[in-house]
Amino acid sequence: MAIRALVFDTFGTLVDWRSGVAREAERLIPGLDGGAFADAWRARYQPSMEAVRSGKRPFVDLDTLQAESLDGLLADLGRADAGTAVKRELVLAWHRLDAWPEVPAAMADLRKAFVLAPLSNGHVRLIVALARRNGLVFDAVLGAEFSRDYKPKPALYRDAVAALGFCADETLMVAAHSDDLAAAAGEGLSTAHVARPSENGPAGGETGPAVAVTFAARDLADLARQLGA
Amino acid sequence: MAIRALVFDTFGTLVDWRSGVAREAERLIPGLDGGAFADAWRARYQPSMEAVRSGKRPFVDLDTLQAESLDGLLADLGRADAGTAVKRELVLAWHRLDAWPEVPAAMADLRKAFVLAPLSNGHVRLIVALARRNGLVFDAVLGAEFSRDYKPKPALYRDAVAALGFCADETLMVAAHSDDLAAAAGEGLSTAHVARPSENGPAGGETGPAVAVTFAARDLADLARQLGA
Q: Is the peptide bond before B152 cis (omega within 30 degrees of 0)?
């Protein structure tokens, strides 16, 4: 088996969502505990996608889901009086996240040897914003908007393999989350776990895979080394 | 109106399909008139997409359509004995096209100022192959496979505008074909015509727009200058 293409989870794997959301939230709502706010918002992330995954509603993008979650979150926090402009800026916080430090250089190395695409629940313009901010270059943008559904629905992994045109096991799903990798492996993709021990701040993050994977890496630079890139 | 994103027709606008297909055909089938072969194949291009556009068949990618057209073309030419390997390589000729000479440098300049994406009837792996071969960098790959239909169906232009997230008139459709630009303008996009007077070899090509456009350019470098990139 030779790896030909890498497809990437984005939030948590390539970019540090918690620090970025916390920073923007504290800027926009003085006195807020940004980290706790980011955690509470992220806790609504998986449930928000479920109505699309289950077919109860047609596909809507992550900005729409985040805006809906935000309304509930602000109400729970007694901050329902946050204005429309602040709420719009908070949703855009997810467009202004920084990559983990080693990511830009490792991605540049990987792109010399492999075809690269995000396979994320983020939609195209969100991914474009993150890629531009952090100097990441992809060959295509796959994932939620391409498949009009959300991970871990199997179609997203299958569509990504078909779009890039290599065999499933030549396509390497890269993620910091074992559930994402398990779903990818279920569709025959090769898998790489990247440890992100500080993804969730004080609550930690996955330091290693909880499922069988093809590669387990300390970070993306380590994965590039293991792949000979 | 400020332009924020450029979306590109690919075959004829960014890459010289006729020379590339002719070159590969002459390599693979000795004694063939490559230019005439390319013209005859291209003549089957628009009709081949019609079954998808009309809803008579589900979306299939351009490699599939080109392979089907090729069987008919070879039969007409009395070359139906061409083997499977040769036929596969001929389909891949469309993955090995060269950009028009000024395109790589102009695209690099444009990318400093604008978000760039193909809006082509080519599918993702075909676009990735052409982009890699010619050193073109896109922010996303939109078009046929993203929308699962073929231009000039209006959905492709609307989907591209929605995916990039700017207003329709901030999104500039760039093409060497007036019919493509007319369809884009019908969905509110701004339009740029790029002259490709040798697209069809001895049969010429569009030296200027046949419809009203926002910009008319001699080539992509001229368009970049007009846009201040």
A: yes
Report the share of chain B in percent with pLDDT over 70. Answer: 100
By the 8 A CB rule, do A227 and A3 touch?
A: yes
CB contact under 8 A, A163 and B127: no
CB A173 within 8 A of CB A157: yes
Chain A residues with CB-CB distance to B125 below 8 A: 163-165
Q: Which residues of B touch A115 (CB under 8 A)?
A: 128, 132
Residue-wise pLDDT tens digits, A116-153: 999 999 999 999 999 999 999 999 999 999 999 999 99
Q: CA-to-CA distance for B87 and B81, rounded, in angstroms?
A: 10
Residue to substitute from A123, A128, A161, A170, interface B, most B β-carbons within 10 A: A128
Domains and CATH numbers, chain A: 5-16+97-226 (3.40.50.1000), 17-93 (1.10.150.240)
Report d(CA B24, CA B32) in Å as an integer: 10
Q: Which among A124, A132, A139 has CB closest to B163?
A: A124
Give A13-55 pLDDT, tens digit per residue.
Answer: 999 999 999 999 999 998 999 999 999 999 999 999 999 999 9
Closest residue in B to A160 (Cα) is B124
What is the interface pTM, i.e. ipTM, of the complex? 0.97
E-strand stretches of B66-123: 115-120
Q: Do A141 and B137 touch (CB under 8 A)?
A: no
